[in-house]
Design brief:
Strand content: 15-25%
Oligomer: single chain
CATH class: Alpha Beta
Distance between the termini: 16 Å
Largest sheet: 7 strands, mixed
Radius of gyration: 17 Å
């Protein structure tokens, strides 16, 4: 029994731990949700992780993101998370993509599972569509912003979401429905009604590594230290359970 993952093995056994070492998971977005998801996957013993994010740490990230510390402000999230994952498991294989995801980015070859923690609608829908069409298992975060109660999170198929009227969720459902996708995507959602004291529009201007310029306006969500982290851990737990399903 490997001491690093010995407590894991006491629960799901040595064969499951060996299987996880052979698996490759891609985590898209390394913010409040994705950072904790990637870390939990590394602590589970996933052998290969691809991490994708274009952003740098800002001071406003400190309340909720595992990459965000006073010492990491203005540093690339991919760099900070990569260092942390290697410190957790020096044997992990890491693929680092420091870029903004678009429809042209495509999918990562050999991926066994995808964790979608993207908060930009266009990119999120494109990733989910690509995963769906390619038959790659994916779990998507829907509803970590504007909330305070992690106990109200739950996992379901996108067709089974209980509160479809929440703006971000309803827009995701609408956009996917236009693509003919109404079920078959697993999500982490919340029963809590979203709330924010103020709507703050923010204009984003991004240039991808391929030179494509992207401009969009989004509403900056309220956030708390509690929900995004738990949503990321929910996603990692679901992925691990699916990967070892039938072994334990």
């Amino acid at each position: 029994m490997s001491e690093r993952f010995s407590r894991n093995e006491l629960y799901w056994g040595a064969e499951s731990q060996k299987l996880l070492k052979l698996k490759h998971v891609a985590v898209f977005g390394l913010g409040g949700v994705g950072g904790y998801c990637a870390e939990s996957l590394a602590r589970s013993g996933i052998g290969e992780l691809t991490i994708i994010d274009f952003d740098k740490v800002s001071i406003s990230n400190i309340n909720r993101q595992t990459a965000a510390l006073t010492s990491t402000i203005n540093k690339k999230k991919t760099d900070i998370i990569a260092q942390r994952l290697i410190d957790i498991n020096p044997e992990i294989k890491l693929n680092i993509i420091d870029d903004f995801y678009t429809s042209e980015t495509g999918l990562i070859q050999g991926t066994d599972f995808v964790a979608d923690a993207i908060d930009t609608m266009r990119s999120k829908i494109s990733l989910l569509e690509n995963c769906f069409k390619a038959g790659i298992p994916v779990i998507s975060s829907l509803g970590a912003g504007n909330r305070i109660a992690p106990e109200m999170l739950y996992i379901c198929d996108i067709s089974e979401i209980e509160n479809k009227n929440a703006p971000f969720i309803s827009n995701c459902i609408y956009q996917l429905k236009k693509l003919g996708i109404e079920k078959g995507i697993t999500v982490v959602a919340s029963r809590e009604k979203p709330f924010s004291l103020e709507k703050l529009p923010a204009k984003e201007e991004i240039t991808t590594n391929a030179g494509k310029k992207i401009e969009f306006t989004k509403i900056t969500p309220a956030s708390t230290p509690f929900v995004a982290s738990c949503a990321g851990i929910f996603m990692a737990s679901y992925i691990v359970r699916k990967l070892i399903e039938g072994i334990k």
